[in-house]
Fold:
Amino acid sequence: MHQTRAPQALTIPRPSPRDAAAESLAEIEAFTALLADVPDEEWSRPTASAGWSVHDMVAHVVGQHIASARPWTIPGKLKQGRRRFPGRTTLDAHNALQIAEYGTRTPAELRGLLQRFGPKAVRVRLRAPGFVRGRSFAKMFPEESLPDGTFAYLFDVLSNRDTWMHRLEIARATGRPFVTGEHDRGVVTQVVRDLAQEWSGLPITLELAGGRWSLGDGEPVAVVRADALDFLWNLSGRGGDPALDIDGDPAVSSAVLDARVVF
Structure:
């Protein structure tokens, strides 16, 4: 039976600020629900982020949301991080500072901070005026290579993606189920859009989480299907060698497995 060609992933629209805010609130709720299911004694377990325990990862996520809720503090925190952790990239130093600042908090305290500052961070990002959203934040993290350096991308895409991936890491580190909802589809879709921007392999049709998209120009030489969680895990650079179901030219597998997207 003839199957219509999948839409180009490059045409996937960015979420509106309100849609991004709704996804962010849903992700914070899902993250909080996961943490409530992890007993204190499991917070010392290692995660896929080298050197980070579950406790460290939650401290980082909490630090991110507190910074978003209090954006006027960020320039000072970046300077403090570079001074305290010389030799690291600005982003790594900033992350290390968050762990240093919040890593001594108890699990109960960290859960409380996320519940308090998570929604505040979402409201602050949603209220950001257009002239701020259109500005570049690339100078804040000069070592990072990003597909879009605007605050709009940071607010609407990258913030949600970062929290989402860390939730997946914690779920896998503790053996908890990764509960998905409608907002997870939005995260996956934006990852596919960024993947399309960097795609240099043969044209393919990618099928993930019930969605179908075309990557590359020309007639697709294969249809590639994969588990969305495993696929994004690999795209983030965390490995895992996801199983691919390829209908067509098997040579596309190397490009698919070697592709990376910023998380």
About this structure: The chain has ten helices and four strands.
